[in-house]
Task: structure prediction
Amino acid sequence: MSLQVFLQAQLLGTEEFLASGHSSQVSDDASELTGRCAWLTLLCEVLPRALLAELKLSRMLLGSSSAEQFLLVLAEDDLTRANAFLARTAEAVSALSGNTVHLVWASTENLGAWPVVRRRLDDTLAAKLSARLGAEMTSAGVFSPFVPESAEIPAEYFVEFGRKLPGASAVGWSPDSPAHLTYDEGQYTWTLKEEAGFDDDGIVYPRRLARKQDGTGLASPSELARQAEGTAKWAILRGDVDHFDIQLRRAATIEDHLHLSVAFKEFFAGELALSVQTIPDLFGRLSVLYREGDGFAVLGAWDALLVLAREMQRLFEKFIQHNFESMPGVEAKTISMGLAIAPDPDTHPAALFREAGLQVAAAKATEVGSFNLFGRTIEWKRLSDAEEVKTGLVRMVREFGYSPDMIRDLASIYREAFTVQAGRRNKAVRVDKPWRTYMRVSGVIPLARNKDMNNARNAVITSLVGKRTSGMKLRPSGRVGLEWARIAAGE
Result:
């Protein structure tokens, strides 16, 4: 009887691949970025199924699959053919991605407890990640100057792949082009499903892409920007579960590992699709670019993305409470996000995708389970305070006729205070003379004879500096609220 073997494969360089742009593509077109995201997401769904189909094995041997890795269970006798399949595919993936995406894999016998098996897989993958010298390299060439190999990425393929995505009913694969995925054709095809069901042959891939008003294609970033409140800007929101890999390594059994992987993957696939489709403020204003087992990326109008960010954080908190509250540790129980707003209409989607990733990293570096937006990182529970400031200021501008310059003047007070105390970033800034700060803030917003105007004015001042004059401080959420109000008011 043949020994059972676990095979785990992983894609490397996905961030560099998604964040790289091409001068041949116009900036006001997200088709290429959409195509790249779809290709990466579907690649790790298609490859394990194609491998099993080529080896004429059961679909039940697929353990888990996400946007960057997959896990299979094979017989030892099938390992040689599987290695040959993956070697051929890895070469094709590297060529199609311009030598930015690399497929690596490891296998080990199903001997011992799952933590031991997982450690052997991790050690083998780590050896491949840290030792990129190929077996073909001679000892004489080891110390030769290294020149990174690069190749031109066929942008046309990914642009077309992105444009055809909304109308596709199935994704296909052929052995003669193992890296080129196709829609509705190929030697093997798998149905693209909206939700999980009893059909084992399909791939759950709900598509939520904003369309042009005439329905002819994908909406461009500038078209989505015109639907935004206040300043017409588009943005990209990215979210990532904090330390999800650590929680995966803690799984005591293969069943726990698969349950964790599948549950988080289905959460992001299902809740993203449901939120974008059912929330009135979001419908038709957002395009879901990327979803994986522990994160997502969405492009759209900047204000709609703020609504989505709050909703996804709320849903994730409920998801953890109902399913993984007893899970040991705090890892994988919080989510961090970053919102990158395009500074000008010519901003390339790939460049903004990279910026959003940097903002997520900045949020994690400040405090896990936080949100980086408008250049600041705040806790999720403080986002409502920032929104209160934004709502009050926008109301004063629109209903009571205050000048939008008031918002800029208030922001300058924050800039001065935080410049003086730069070492206390993201903390409330106390002042030696509270009355002076209050006078500066209140002086920017003059008193009025109208009672409603003064009530709105006092509410904004309280949101910025607090109620206690003896312990007055500039709140970090107020700085976020000011930037939020500035863009919402059309500044």
